[in-house]
């Protein structure tokens, strides 16, 4: 499973963000491309698109549902990262939407295997452990998995993507918990605005 040590001071994981102005009340935000959860979700999206191209009937409504769920997982991380500067509540909500979308996608892959009589890998199987080891590389991208996704049979590819979704969900769970803790400790935009205003008044008074 991917490491949970991917964190930044604002409670989001791994974002390289600009330094906040000393008297500002909008904290650093954005930088989603450096979030490990986003990079994993991007791999899941690219892999799902290719999976549907290879193994699904284009007229099957499940194709749209799966690609939209994969896209929602990725895009809500993007939006949550960007909106975090002005609304921690909205950031937490969007990260939870991303998490829910990926859970929906996970069930689609399980359904694919079950309805075709294909085996779901045990989490401790040799194959699952191998995929997790690949995922431990922080620089992993779709290219890391391309050969497997584009050449292996449907059951193998579905199980690989299931492993990738589990890794992404783990990272999002960690990220959401840190965001909740940061909100409890630091408050939201209104509290930051009040602190910044009081600090500015105190400085003017001292001058």
Molecular structure report:
There is one protein chain. By secondary structure, the protein is an all-alpha fold. It contains seven helices and no strands. The protein has helices at residues 36-55, 61-83, 88-115, 126-135, 142-151, 154-186, 189-206. The N and C termini lie far apart (54 Å). Residues 1-26 have low confidence and may be disordered.
Strand content: under 5%
Structural class label:
mainly alpha
Give the overall silhouette. elongated
Average pLDDT value? Answer: 83
Assembly state of the chains shown: single chain
Rg of Cα set: 20 Å
Order of helices and strands: HHHHHHH
Count of the domains = 1
For the sheet with most strands, the description reads: none
Low-confidence runs: 1-26
Helix content: 55-70%
Terminal residue distance: 54 Å
Number of strands: 0
Helical segment count: 7
Protein topology:
Blueprint lengths: L35 H20 L5 H23 L4 H28 L10 H10 L6 H10 L2 H33 L2 H18 L1
What descriptors fit this protein?
207 residues, mainly alpha, 0% strand, elongated, disordered N terminus
Give me a quick take on this structure:
The protein is mainly α.
């Amino acid at each position: 499973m991917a490491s949970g040590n991917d964190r930044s001071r604002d409670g989001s994981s791994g974002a390289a963000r600009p330094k906040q102005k000393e008297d500002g009340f909008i904290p650093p935000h954005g930088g989603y491309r450096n979030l490990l959860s986003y990079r994993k979700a991007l791999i899941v999206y690219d892999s799902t698109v290719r999976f549907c191209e290879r193994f699904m009937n284009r007229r099957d409504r499940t194709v749209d549902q799966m690609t939209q769920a994969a896209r929602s997982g990725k895009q809500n991380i993007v939006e949550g990262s960007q909106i975090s500067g002005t609304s921690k509540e909205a950031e937490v909500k969007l990260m939870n939407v991303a998490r829910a979308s990926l859970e929906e996608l996970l069930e689609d892959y399980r359904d694919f295997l079950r309805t075709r009589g294909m085996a779901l890998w045990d989490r401790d199987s040799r194959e699952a452990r191998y995929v997790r080891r690949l995922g431990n590389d922080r620089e992993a991208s779709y290219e890391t998995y391309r050969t497997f996704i584009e050449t292996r049979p449907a059951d193998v590819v579905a199980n690989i993507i299931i492993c990738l979704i589990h890794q992404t969900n783990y990272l999002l769970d960690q990220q959401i918990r840190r965001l909740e803790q940061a909100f409890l400790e630091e408050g939201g935009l209104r509290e930051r605005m009040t602190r910044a205003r009081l600090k500015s008044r105190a400085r003017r008074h001292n001058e």
